[in-house]
Amino acid sequence: MIEVQSLSKNYGDRPAVKNISFKVNKGEVVGFLGPNGAGKTTTMKIITGFMAPSQGEVRVAGFDVFENPLEVKSRIGYLPETPPVYGDMSVEDYLFFVARLRKVPGPQVATYVRDAIDKTNLGDVRKRMIQNLSKGFRQRVGLAQALVSKPEVLILDEPTVGLDPRQMAEIRQLIRQLRGHHTIVLSTHILPEVEASCQRVIIINQGQIVAEDSIEGLLRAQSASRRVDLRVKRPTAQLEAELKGLNGVLRVAAEANPGQYQLEIDNRDETVEQIAHRVVGGNMGLLQLHVQAMGLEDLFIHLVTSEHGGAQ
Has residue 230 been placed in a domain? Predict the structure, then answer.
């Protein structure tokens, strides 16, 4: 449904996206995951035709985004990071306006608007002015405008940014309900959003794709690694470097609180034993040594802070 080939985008002499390629199949929900500044929004704007690439090709449903822009845009519903709503219109009037802009056939406009309102649970506020709604409801209105033409593809850029936990949960539930009815690309840096909504994940960092698979597949690839949460009472200045030098320790990150560290290690018990021996032998006061399997958050941190690129 979506094909991105050798896509690059430069802002002056600064590359924002560097030669990326990926596909999204019909009906998939794909999370486009990365830290702030990784190139997510730039890629979404290019896919939707809002921005031209420096090089590369994007096709939606077989149509080139820039050779056949009207064909592509008729198939895409787009929710940018800031919802494109008009505060001085009522919810219902605004959705009628958007439906006509999207060239929904006249006899079907009312039905399409009603369906979009029902899907986004806006019935109780459909007559209210958008400027008087909470941020959560305005986000729902933004999603409703993306849905009102019943597009094949939904591009959602940071759909829960700025929402409180309850509003975030409501939007994620709504996205899950849309699964199977649309091909969805969900751009975000919020890990629970991906875990709650997506079947496949593309991780981007510093403009480059550093991983692409199902969540299960990504975690399975990391199954040989474990995470260690370490806390000591009397850390030495050399402890972090000494831990990094131990056989089997793959990564060490000092936490904000003195004496707290997070380590990525291999799957050998001997590695855990080495860590404990070093701390206890140095009389540092071992307070915590907690070992657990790697999760999506650990994988994400590893990919955006390792040799694939520095933290954003």
Answer: yes
pTM: 0.74
State which residues form the domain around 254.
224-293
Q: Which of 220, 254, 275 is the last residue of a domain?
A: 220
Report yes or no: 95 and 110 within 8 Å, Cβ to Cβ.
Answer: no
Q: Which of 64, 301, 60, 81 is nearest to 186 (CA)?
A: 81
Q: How far apart are the first and last CA of the chain?
A: 31
Assign residue 206 the CATH number of its domain. 3.40.50.300
Judge contact between 185 and 24, C-beta under 8 A: yes
Domain end marker among 202, 220, 238: 220
**Distance between CA atoms of 279 and 235, rounded to whole angstroms?**
9
Q: How many CB atoms lie within 10 A of CB 32?
A: 28
Structure confidence by residue, pLDDT tens digits, 163-195: 888 888 888 888 888 888 899 999 888 887 888
Rounded to an integer, what distance in angstroms lies between the CA atom of residue 254 and that of residue 5? 39
